[in-house]
Amino acid sequence: MKNSWTIHEVTRACGVTRDELNQWISRGVFRPSEPTRRGTWRRFDCCDLACLSTMAALRRMDLSVSAAGRIAADLRAALTRMDKIREPQGLFIIATDPWDAEAREPARLTHRAELTTEMLTAAAAVMVDVAKVYRDARAAISGRPARNRADVACVRPTGATTKDAAP
What is the CATH code of the structural domain delimited by 4-165? Predict the structure, then answer.
Protein backbone atom coordinates (compact mmCIF):
# COMPACT_ATOMS: atom_id res chain seq x y z
CA MET A 1 0.00 0.00 0.00
CA LYS A 2 1.36 3.39 -1.02
CA ASN A 3 2.00 5.70 1.93
CA SER A 4 2.75 8.98 0.16
CA TRP A 5 1.38 10.78 -2.86
CA THR A 6 2.24 13.61 -5.22
CA ILE A 7 0.55 17.00 -5.18
CA HIS A 8 -1.30 16.02 -8.37
CA GLU A 9 -2.74 12.85 -6.82
CA VAL A 10 -3.75 14.59 -3.58
CA THR A 11 -5.38 17.63 -5.20
CA ARG A 12 -7.35 15.48 -7.63
CA ALA A 13 -8.51 13.18 -4.83
CA CYS A 14 -9.55 16.06 -2.54
CA GLY A 15 -11.14 18.22 -5.22
CA VAL A 16 -8.88 21.25 -4.80
CA THR A 17 -6.57 22.85 -7.33
CA ARG A 18 -2.81 22.70 -7.15
CA ASP A 19 -2.67 26.50 -6.96
CA GLU A 20 -5.18 26.49 -4.10
CA LEU A 21 -3.15 23.96 -2.12
CA ASN A 22 0.12 25.81 -2.79
CA GLN A 23 -1.53 29.01 -1.57
CA TRP A 24 -2.72 27.28 1.63
CA ILE A 25 0.83 26.07 2.22
CA SER A 26 2.50 29.42 1.48
CA ARG A 27 0.03 31.27 3.75
CA GLY A 28 0.64 28.75 6.55
CA VAL A 29 -2.98 27.58 6.59
CA PHE A 30 -1.87 24.02 5.85
CA ARG A 31 1.46 22.55 6.92
CA PRO A 32 2.49 19.30 5.22
CA SER A 33 4.05 16.62 7.41
CA GLU A 34 7.36 16.75 5.58
CA PRO A 35 9.04 19.94 4.37
CA THR A 36 10.16 20.02 0.77
CA ARG A 37 13.89 19.66 0.30
CA ARG A 38 15.67 21.47 -2.48
CA GLY A 39 15.50 19.52 -5.71
CA THR A 40 12.76 17.13 -4.57
CA TRP A 41 9.03 16.94 -5.20
CA ARG A 42 6.63 17.55 -2.35
CA ARG A 43 5.04 14.33 -1.04
CA PHE A 44 1.94 13.99 1.14
CA ASP A 45 1.40 11.23 3.69
CA CYS A 46 -1.74 9.66 5.19
CA CYS A 47 -2.11 12.38 7.82
CA ASP A 48 -1.81 15.07 5.13
CA LEU A 49 -4.46 13.32 3.03
CA ALA A 50 -6.87 13.10 5.99
CA CYS A 51 -6.34 16.78 6.83
CA LEU A 52 -6.62 17.98 3.23
CA SER A 53 -9.73 15.94 2.50
CA THR A 54 -11.28 17.36 5.69
CA MET A 55 -10.33 20.92 4.68
CA ALA A 56 -11.86 20.38 1.25
CA ALA A 57 -15.09 19.11 2.83
CA LEU A 58 -15.21 22.17 5.10
CA ARG A 59 -14.61 24.50 2.14
CA ARG A 60 -17.52 22.85 0.29
CA MET A 61 -19.63 24.05 3.24
CA ASP A 62 -18.36 27.62 2.63
CA LEU A 63 -16.27 27.68 5.78
CA SER A 64 -13.41 30.16 5.41
CA VAL A 65 -9.95 28.89 4.50
CA SER A 66 -8.52 30.08 7.82
CA ALA A 67 -11.28 28.33 9.84
CA ALA A 68 -10.85 25.13 7.79
CA GLY A 69 -7.08 25.36 8.34
CA ARG A 70 -7.49 25.71 12.11
CA ILE A 71 -9.74 22.64 12.21
CA ALA A 72 -7.27 20.69 10.03
CA ALA A 73 -4.44 21.66 12.41
CA ASP A 74 -6.50 20.36 15.35
CA LEU A 75 -7.17 17.17 13.38
CA ARG A 76 -3.44 16.74 12.67
CA ALA A 77 -2.68 17.06 16.39
CA ALA A 78 -5.29 14.40 17.19
CA LEU A 79 -4.11 12.08 14.41
CA THR A 80 -0.49 12.19 15.58
CA ARG A 81 -1.67 10.27 18.62
CA MET A 82 -3.05 7.52 16.36
CA ASP A 83 -1.00 5.22 14.15
CA LYS A 84 -3.68 5.17 11.43
CA ILE A 85 -7.36 5.73 10.81
CA ARG A 86 -8.77 2.30 11.65
CA GLU A 87 -12.47 3.10 11.73
CA PRO A 88 -14.23 2.23 8.49
CA GLN A 89 -16.70 4.99 9.33
CA GLY A 90 -17.84 7.15 12.19
CA LEU A 91 -14.67 9.00 13.19
CA PHE A 92 -15.75 12.62 13.29
CA ILE A 93 -14.01 15.90 13.94
CA ILE A 94 -16.27 18.43 15.62
CA ALA A 95 -15.51 22.14 15.84
CA THR A 96 -17.76 24.24 18.01
CA ASP A 97 -18.29 27.80 16.80
CA PRO A 98 -15.53 27.68 14.14
CA TRP A 99 -16.64 31.07 12.78
CA ASP A 100 -15.20 32.91 15.79
CA ALA A 101 -11.42 32.45 15.84
CA GLU A 102 -10.98 34.04 19.25
CA ALA A 103 -13.74 32.22 21.15
CA ARG A 104 -13.21 28.85 19.51
CA GLU A 105 -12.24 25.72 21.40
CA PRO A 106 -9.94 23.25 19.64
CA ALA A 107 -11.76 20.81 17.38
CA ARG A 108 -11.82 17.26 18.69
CA LEU A 109 -12.18 13.76 17.33
CA THR A 110 -15.12 11.69 18.45
CA HIS A 111 -16.71 8.39 17.52
CA ARG A 112 -20.22 7.87 16.19
CA ALA A 113 -21.50 6.68 19.59
CA GLU A 114 -20.53 10.00 21.21
CA LEU A 115 -21.76 12.16 18.35
CA THR A 116 -25.29 12.86 19.59
CA THR A 117 -24.07 14.14 22.94
CA GLU A 118 -21.45 16.37 21.28
CA MET A 119 -23.94 17.89 18.83
CA LEU A 120 -26.68 18.42 21.43
CA THR A 121 -24.39 20.43 23.70
CA ALA A 122 -23.09 22.72 20.92
CA ALA A 123 -24.86 25.97 20.07
CA ALA A 124 -23.01 26.10 16.75
CA ALA A 125 -20.81 23.38 15.33
CA VAL A 126 -19.34 21.85 12.21
CA MET A 127 -18.56 18.17 11.91
CA VAL A 128 -16.82 16.10 9.27
CA ASP A 129 -16.73 12.32 9.00
CA VAL A 130 -12.93 12.14 8.78
CA ALA A 131 -12.87 8.40 8.15
CA LYS A 132 -15.22 8.81 5.19
CA VAL A 133 -13.50 11.75 3.49
CA TYR A 134 -10.11 10.07 3.99
CA ARG A 135 -11.41 6.75 2.63
CA ASP A 136 -13.01 8.54 -0.35
CA ALA A 137 -9.74 10.36 -1.12
CA ARG A 138 -7.80 7.08 -0.96
CA ALA A 139 -10.39 5.52 -3.27
CA ALA A 140 -10.09 8.42 -5.73
CA ILE A 141 -6.30 8.06 -5.82
CA SER A 142 -6.60 4.35 -6.60
CA GLY A 143 -9.32 4.94 -9.20
CA ARG A 144 -12.22 3.45 -7.24
CA PRO A 145 -15.51 5.33 -6.95
CA ALA A 146 -16.32 6.96 -3.61
CA ARG A 147 -19.42 6.01 -1.68
CA ASN A 148 -22.26 8.47 -1.98
CA ARG A 149 -22.98 9.50 1.60
CA ALA A 150 -22.99 12.79 3.46
CA ASP A 151 -19.63 13.63 5.01
CA VAL A 152 -20.26 17.04 6.58
CA ALA A 153 -22.90 18.66 8.74
CA CYS A 154 -23.31 22.13 10.11
CA VAL A 155 -25.35 23.46 13.02
CA ARG A 156 -25.47 27.24 13.04
CA PRO A 157 -26.76 29.56 15.72
CA THR A 158 -30.40 30.57 15.32
CA GLY A 159 -30.75 33.35 12.78
CA ALA A 160 -27.24 32.98 11.34
CA THR A 161 -26.92 32.95 7.59
CA THR A 162 -24.18 31.44 5.48
CA LYS A 163 -22.73 34.92 5.06
CA ASP A 164 -22.85 35.55 8.84
CA ALA A 165 -21.52 32.14 9.75
CA ALA A 166 -18.67 31.79 7.26
CA PRO A 167 -16.75 35.05 6.83
Answer: 1.10.1660.10
